[in-house]
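The freezer alarm interrupted the setup, so I double-checked each line after restarting. Inputs confirmed:
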Amino acid sequence: MSTNSKRQAAYEAVDKHLNSDTRIIGIGSGSTVVFVVERIVQRGNFKKNDNSGEKNENSDQKLEELDLNQCVFIPTSFQSRLLIINNGLNLGEIDQYHEIDITIDGADEVDENLNAIKGGGACHLREKVVAEISKKFIIVADYTKRSTVLGEKWIKGIPIEVIPFCYTLVLNSLKLLGCQNFNLRMAKNKAGPIITDNGNFVVDAYFGKLDGQQFLGDDNLTFINSPSEVLKRIKLLTGVVEVGLFVGMAEIAYFGEEDGCSVGVLKK
Ligand SMILES: O=C[C@H](O)[C@H](O)[C@H](O)COP(=O)(O)O
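Predicted 3D structure, all chains:
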């Protein structure tokens, strides 16, 4: 994983999809999205110093200037809210808009059908709300996130946001679904579980590779472990608020390659 790979993917997405007509922009969460905002500011009509020290591959291209005073940026987390504010961009709130022009976000793993696992940073609830009302939902990531089937690379488990007092119920229900490997996500530098921006807990549940094979539950009932089926099963559990499986939502993904210069594209 490299910073340059993330930066290249982010720059490519901004350069390909943001133009002078783009107005309402969703800003995802995580380390890759930092470069999305960096590029937006570079292309904007108010200039901040670019401290990246990196030469951008696209810097010679003639790109339309973005009129940032006319744009509103919708955050998907406290982190992305700060990113928007600290870069002097106009902050909007999710509930002010019923439609967003475009959202660019990171991912923890993306399969060949553009399904994604998200929530490594516990932001997947707001990320999903913003993605769902976006006309275009675009993923940016480095090459390590690209896989054939979900669960091949991200083996920490599918992030599940749960209501705090329901977490033991959810853990038991996951066991009944046949999941053998699940954990309440614990905080670092704080005793106890992590608390999401929405005041909830996160459980990470690994269902193996989501390759469409039969999955046997503890109750001897089987189901097909495709991303959509696993999403439905988990979402139906009492106490679950949102699942970090984004099925059929992204229309294109940019992956910064290992060389730190080239960018792979996956689209529908
Ligand atoms: O909850 C966090 C988000 O889903 C992130 O977009 C995801 O974890 C990817 O983050 P990063 O760009 O740091 O790999």
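Quick read of the result. The radius of gyration is 19 Å.
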